[in-house]
């Protein structure tokens, strides 16, 4: 599993609803996959060229923060190739044998989506190198001096690896992907389109101005946009006779503690801890995460990329540091000790 999306508290009744709806909202083809034009165009070319050559395309690595569409793209790849899709994830493959079992069950041209590929065990990773390159693995049978390696042929397949941490992938693994797509946070305008598309699929009436309110608070992330749309729909049903306008959307998101810039409770806790408890830092990731009661991985992969992008937080060799904007956003006065620091650096 990728780290928990920071606004899970918005879904206090569990993710059942979300998972069912998520599937229905996924764009089925590259044409409908908006908001990452470069990745979509490059990937489209890789797939079209392979089809032209009547060959299995190169392996594909997709990287980027959670909720930006990596799983969706893997499904689209299988769909565009007309190939079956097999899904697994790094943490589920702890032994090389687990991987061998999956690989040996693949059919020719099948798309194998491996989520969180950076969390696979080392022996499985090494087996994957050979499978990606030679479509073959060596399975060790027996133990001790009597152990033997039996080569196992695997039909040509397409590996689609997904990671939130491309930097953690060992070079030899990264190099075996013929195409790497780096997904980035979505522009507000693209998210407005995604909210409107989802609203129409879910039969929710949302005008462009209301969709903008939702999109603007979605941290550049389609999964969050879809989730906030559903919370706005709920709020409107109960409190506004089902009618959504920009004020209703804003009131709903206030209720769910999503602020005007899209920061949620985890983001604000991290900023508050950094600015107030640690006087702006520098503070180590582990200490910061512990002080907000979260896993370091969640803070690092879910909250931080957005806070850094928004200019609230900096990573320095000595630890995390708040920027002037962080205090301002929290409505706090920048401490005198910091004000000097920011007078020319952080405007
Ligand atoms: N370009 C897009 N257009 C419309 N909806 C999208 C797009 N990308 C993602 N979504 C929606 O966002 C949701 C999350 O996408 P997806 O599960 O593919 O993200 P992910 O990057 O795989 O996340 P994780 O890393 O957490 O597994 C999907 O249900 C899908 O409906």
From TrEMBL:
Q: What is known of its domains?
A: Has 3 domains, the large (RuvB-L) and small ATPase (RuvB-S) domains and the C-terminal head (RuvB-H) domain. The head domain binds DNA, while the ATPase domains jointly bind ATP, ADP or are empty depending on the state of the subunit in the translocation cycle. During a single DNA translocation step the structure of each domain remains the same, but their relative positions change.
- Domain of life from the UniProt record: Bacteria
Q: Which InterPro entries match?
A: AAA+_ATPase, AAA_lid_4, DNA_helicase_Holl-junc_RuvB, P-loop_NTPase, RuvB-like_N, RuvB_wg_C, WH-like_DNA-bd_sf, WH_DNA-bd_sf
Q: What is its biological role?
A: The RuvA-RuvB-RuvC complex processes Holliday junction (HJ) DNA during genetic recombination and DNA repair, while the RuvA-RuvB complex plays an important role in the rescue of blocked DNA replication forks via replication fork reversal (RFR). RuvA specifically binds to HJ cruciform DNA, conferring on it an open structure. The RuvB hexamer acts as an ATP-dependent pump, pulling dsDNA into and through the RuvAB complex. RuvB forms 2 homohexamers on either side of HJ DNA bound by 1 or 2 RuvA tetramers; 4 subunits per hexamer contact DNA at a time.
EC number(s) stated in the UniProt entry for this protein: 3.6.4.-
Summarize where ATP binds, as residue positions.
25-26, 67, 70-72, 133-135, 176, 186, 223
Any one Gene Ontology cellular component term annotated for this protein: Holliday junction resolvase complex
UniProt keyword annotations, A-Z = ATP-binding, Cytoplasm, DNA damage, DNA recombination, DNA repair, DNA-binding, Helicase, Hydrolase, Nucleotide-binding
Write out the ranges of the annotated region (Head domain (RuvB-H)): 260-347
Cellular compartments annotated: Cytoplasm
Residues annotated for Mg(2+) binding in this entry: 71
Q: State the name under which the record lists this protein.
A: Holliday junction branch migration complex subunit RuvB
Name the encoding gene, please: ruvB
Task: Please cite one Gene Ontology biological process associated with this protein.
Answer: DNA recombination
Provide the residue span(s) of the region labelled Small ATPAse domain (RuvB-S): 187-257
Q: Which family does it belong to?
A: Belongs to the RuvB family.
Q: How does it assemble?
A: Homohexamer. Forms an RuvA(8)-RuvB(12)-Holliday junction (HJ) complex. HJ DNA is sandwiched between 2 RuvA tetramers; dsDNA enters through RuvA and exits via RuvB. An RuvB hexamer assembles on each DNA strand where it exits the tetramer. Each RuvB hexamer is contacted by two RuvA subunits (via domain III) on 2 adjacent RuvB subunits; this complex drives branch migration. In the full resolvosome a probable DNA-RuvA(4)-RuvB(12)-RuvC(2) complex forms which resolves the HJ.
User: Taxonomically, what lineage is the organism?
Assistant: Bacteria, Bacillati, Actinomycetota, Actinomycetes, Propionibacteriales
- Provide the catalytic activity annotation: ATP + H2O = ADP + phosphate + H(+)
């Amino acid at each position: 599993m990728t780290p928990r999306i920071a606004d899970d508290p918005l879904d206090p009744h569990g993710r059942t609803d979300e998972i069912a709806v998520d599937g229905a909202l996924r764009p089925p083809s590259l044409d409908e996959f908006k908001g990452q034009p470069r990745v979509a165009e490059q990937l489209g070319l890789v797939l079209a060229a392979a089809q032209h050559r009547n060959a299995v395309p190169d392996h594909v690595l997709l990287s980027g923060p959670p909720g930006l569409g990596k799983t969706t793209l893997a499904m689209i790849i299988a769909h565009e190739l007309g190939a079956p899709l097999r899904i697994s994830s790094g943490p589920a493959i702890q032994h090389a044998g687990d991987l061998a079992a999956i690989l040996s069950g693949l059919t020719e041209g099948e798309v194998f989506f491996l989520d969180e590929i950076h969390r696979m065990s080392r022996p499985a990773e090494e087996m994957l190198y050979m499978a990606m390159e030679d479509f073959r693995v060596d399975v060790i049978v027996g133990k001790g001096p009597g152990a033997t390696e039996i080569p196992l042929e695997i039909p040509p397949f397409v590996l689609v690896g997904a990671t939130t941490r491309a930097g953690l992938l060992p070079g030899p693994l990264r190099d075996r992907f013929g195409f790497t797509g780096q997904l980035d946070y979505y522009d507000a305008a693209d998210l407005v389109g995604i909210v409107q598309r989802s609203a129409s699929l879910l039969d929710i009436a949302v005008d462009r101005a209301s969709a903008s309110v939702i999109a603007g608070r979605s941290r550049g992330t389609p999964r969050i946009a879809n989730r906030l749309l559903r919370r706005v729909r709920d709020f409107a049903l109960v409190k506004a006779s089902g009618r959504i306008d920009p004020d209703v959307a804003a009131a709903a998101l206030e209720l769910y503690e999503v602020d005007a810039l899209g920061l949620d409770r985890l983001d604000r806790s991290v900023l508050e801890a950094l600015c107030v408890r640690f006087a702006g830092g520098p503070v180590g990731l582990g200490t910061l995460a512990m002080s907000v009661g979260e896993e370091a991985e969640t803070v690092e992969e879910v909250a931080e990329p957005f806070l850094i992008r928004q200019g609230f937080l900096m990573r320095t060799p000595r630890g995390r540091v708040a920027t002037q904007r962080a205090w301002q956003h929290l409505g706090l006065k920048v401490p005198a000790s910091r004000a000097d620091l920011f007078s020319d650096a952080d405007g």
